[in-house]
Amino acid sequence: MTVRRVVPNIRAEGGAEAVRESRAFYGLLGLQEVMDHGWIMTLGSPSDPTAQVSFMTHDKTAPVTPDLSVEVDDVDAAYEALRESGAEIVHPLRDEEWGVRRFFVRDPNGRVINVLTHRG
């Protein structure tokens, strides 16, 4: 299995206004918007597409907001390996309408990790 990128997810406690403020603040550091679904916005480096950070008001389909996203080349293999290890699956493996297949798992530190693959 190959890791394609790791993205910290920052909970935008102030909602949409906090997301707008984050876009402006991190824009001063050179990060640019690469995705905005309304409930999650991702900023990235124009020179390195794997250098990203996301700001979330909530998660659209899951009961919790993940702390970190890890994109892998084979999410099904990752799911099986983590499930077989006895790790706590927080959100089941599923295809999402915005083009990813993902699940959430709790790491040994109690953090919720969004493990995903982009479809198609």
Automatic annotation (TrEMBL):
Coiled coil: none annotated. Pfam families: Glyoxalase. Residues 1-118 form the VOC domain. It comes from the Bacteria. InterPro entries: Glyas_Bleomycin-R_OHBP_Dase, Glyas_Fos-R_dOase_dom, VOC_core. This is Glyoxalase.
